[in-house]
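PT: before anyone asks, these are the final sequences, not the draft ones from last week. 914 residues across everything. Please model them as a single complex and drop the result in this thread when it's through.
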Amino acid sequence: MAMHDVTIEKTIMALLEEKKYQTLKDILVTMEPSDIVSVFEELKEDRMPLLFRLLPKETAAEVFAELDHDWQALLIKGFSDTELREVVNELYVDDAADLVDEMPANVVKRILAQADPQMRKEINQILSFPENSAGSVMTTEYVSLRPMMTVAEAIVRIRRTGIDKETIYTCYVTEERKLLGVVSVKDLLLASNDDTPVSEIMDENVISVNTLTDQEEVARMFSKYDFLALPVVDRGGRMVGIVTFDDAMDILQEETTEDIEKMAGMLPSEKTYLKSSSFELFRNRIPWLALLMVSATFTGIIITGFENALAAQVVLTAFIPMLMDTGGNSGSQASVTIIRALSLGELEFKDMPKVIWKEIKTSVLCGVSLASLCFLKIMFFDRLVLGNTGIDLPTAAVVCVTMAVTVLMAKLVGCSLPMIAKKIGFDPAVMASPFITTIVDALSLLVYFKIATAFLF
Amino acid sequence: MAMHDVTIEKTIMALLEEKKYQTLKDILVTMEPSDIVSVFEELKEDRMPLLFRLLPKETAAEVFAELDHDWQALLIKGFSDTELREVVNELYVDDAADLVDEMPANVVKRILAQADPQMRKEINQILSFPENSAGSVMTTEYVSLRPMMTVAEAIVRIRRTGIDKETIYTCYVTEERKLLGVVSVKDLLLASNDDTPVSEIMDENVISVNTLTDQEEVARMFSKYDFLALPVVDRGGRMVGIVTFDDAMDILQEETTEDIEKMAGMLPSEKTYLKSSSFELFRNRIPWLALLMVSATFTGIIITGFENALAAQVVLTAFIPMLMDTGGNSGSQASVTIIRALSLGELEFKDMPKVIWKEIKTSVLCGVSLASLCFLKIMFFDRLVLGNTGIDLPTAAVVCVTMAVTVLMAKLVGCSLPMIAKKIGFDPAVMASPFITTIVDALSLLVYFKIATAFLF
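LR: through. Structure below.
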């Protein structure tokens, strides 16, 4: 049933080689645009324009909108002005704006020259909003109704104007562009009387966003309210466009990927992995690697400060990785949990006391369990099985007490830093594993050596 | 515009104390179900049944469906049989099945006793599918049309039967329960002729899923194809239900949270952070912490094996944390990138050679840059500024060469383990930071001491 099969792609390429164009047309008409895009991505560059011209007009625009910007540029280069006009004016205006935003200046000039005047005006409007704002991701094509229309008149209007709209299922009731209410096609179709005015069945409690609302906030509202579309209004409460659920879903995925990349100490990237060059991957990864490496100077200084103690009791060194890693893992668990909860909107800064108290209790449970397990491991496995006779009871005790203290500190640092970052306007996702690990490393070494010097020397 | 304001919650609680029930009804009728749920979550338990009874019937069912299972159980306990019947039969059948799945046996008995026979049958059907399968998350309420109906007849049918359906916008054309095609309300409304048979305008290339398809795969298809609903068919190609986009969006969010939890070395949990007890957090976190702590035995053994070298050249110890952390961070970057790409469906096992080659190039760039930076840091900062005279040129060289080798190894381990895990049927998300760090730690220490003993002694 699912079309994302490798064999379909091979079949298409074979038919293309054999110039079986009618057969290709017959196949393409049965396929979903996303699946056609997958086929395009496997094609050699010079084959693409040919296959593109075999697509039905409407599908062609949908496929074009989903293609990578590089491929779009390539196709446009080969288009005649007529072909370009057909594709551009068939696009939804948000996709057209996206295209104009990404193409080089000379291509933009050609695109705008071929766009209808109305389309050109709307593209420019969308591009005037700041990046990642609701205004920049909205579309200006929606169904608007008047409050005094009857249900029957509204349905007639939808049937007349719906063809170019990205969604017809949510209609907006406006008067002099003021947003008065919202009514769904379901409400209209299921209305008991065709003569009821729209103003009587519309929902006046419209949830809307501002043109400047951040796209992440917009996407979150979709997953909270399960809307098909969300109206975008300007400061004067005048309706300017809608964001549709499919765009919201894409935003949600992108923002999550960004969060995950930041959590792993990388600069976020808009390109997929396979499309990023090694140099781009390097550029995204090196800043945090370098910064964290340099900050390891602190742990170096701490160890150097206790060089004499370590020389006298070399066995202490063997436990450094275990203590550091357990601290790092404990801290990451807390920080990642908090970062995700913040990004899903489940936590706010005011919950901080509750969070800290919960983490204290959790880390006491974790710390005591790990310390006990560690004690058994050291005394029985390391000492008896491995025969590491340098380990005595006091050493084991020092390691285990450090373990418990480290877990406590790690969880406290891990849970509080993301919340503080969010409060002071930084991105909490940065306060994840790598950053927390570096702090916890230094703290755990300090605790380790302080306890060791107090008890062992 | 957005209703998720703290003040609304306070107003409602105040009105409840003052017994202003009519005012409360007037407010509640203007609110979105999700926002009412937020208010409920702030209420004292004994206030909830009272507020619930003030809700309009339809909203009550929606609010009920979104509540936590604990709160649902509490409400049901207080319901009369009549109240329970009203709520249960107003629920969409997928929500009802979810409820039955989560309640204790005695409550389930009461619920099923009050459900209509048809509802009871459909609940049982949904519950018969394995957890996390398409069958278990679908709803059996959808609009079905016959191929020979005209457009006008189809619209009449939708208007007559649509009221109980979760979505009316995608209609399924069936004959003897076989799925023949799909037609949207948009297609029907915009059809040029009311007498055209549905079979002529329907799309026969229906993308569907099987009852046993994993819910994650289902959710991915939604974000790929931007569908409003996806039909679920049984082995015989008979249509049994649909999954709607809002459920798919929830699944996507849940699965991502699970991935993130696993990547940070935790067992995934279905409860939100604030609702999890400290003991539950402990139970989710301790297994990986303990396992990883015990596996640090290897790094301990490696260090013990080079105890004499370390005693002779204590300054080597000071660089252990920096080398370990940089290795861990490099490996996490690669593994997390690959895990996310796998989960978004951007990568497959067959891409492994490309991935490895890309990571080799990236790690050479990262490794050489970090090693150079590290050399400068050691020779100028550690040696001259901090006055650490134990560091000489050969030591610095050993540290920097180890750095470059560690980065290379870390990225290779980090990119290949998740892909191998996926190939052999394990969850790639587990192959993230904590696991990779443990492996890379041992590898980097081995390389460090081997190079050190070769060059320094």
